[in-house]
């Protein structure tokens, strides 16, 4: 689909998925970064896990130098802590930390939506987004929350990828990774996303009308409600001892 081809790179910047990248010619540092990030985001390296640099190098089958460079990048993204002579520790997921991350992430995403509304949508882009919303509504009706959650990520990333600001997209991508683990934890507790579907429709209508203020307002309301729900569900999940 042409719209997908046009926005795929920007979507990856805004929502860099947890899967390891197998692009040819990837440097050893980037391979180490992608592999470790994948293991952290998917829980294969659980919160609280501590490993020495030599253990990480052996785990990844790489030398210590690219592994060290990769861990510095992961620490900058807030996924691990580095302790000299004690290796790295995967950071825990706490409701307070996720709340702070979402404060920044949502503010950036709202700004991106404003820029998209100012830019406007082509007929092809609008049709593609409407099709995505229709699929999400069908998944809601079917009770398939896991697939709906994946499509929710796709919808948001497709919209913000149209904002035309690569610096904003890169920063969004960094904060997306920091809140991704919380999204996975709360997935079993999420209610049917009927309200989210309605809010997505209102936001898309405002963007299509190039009504910047309405786009900002509807997306702000959506993010405020969804973020509060995510933090509340995370408290419930961690409080139950199921994490």
Word description of this protein:
By secondary structure, this protein is mainly α. The protein has 2 domains: 2-14 and 94-239, Four Helix Bundle (Hemerythrin (Met), subunit A); 28-90, Winged helix-like DNA-binding domain superfamily/Winged helix DNA-binding domain (Arc Repressor Mutant, subunit A, Orthogonal Bundle), CATH 1.10.10.10. The chain contains 10 helices and 3 strands; from the N terminus they run ααβααββαααααα. The chain has a 3-stranded antiparallel β-sheet. Helix 6 packs antiparallel against helix 9. The chain is globular, with a radius of gyration of 19 Å. It starts with a helix and ends with a helix. The mean pLDDT is 89.
Give me the secondary-structure topology.
Blueprint: H1 2-14, H2 28-41, E1 50-51, H3 53-60, H4 64-76, E2 80-83, E3 87-90, H5 95-119, H6 123-142, H7 145-160, H8 166-186, H9 194-208, H10 212-239
Helix pairs in contact: 1-7, 1-8, 2-4, 5-8, 5-10, 6-7, 6-9, 8-10, 9-10
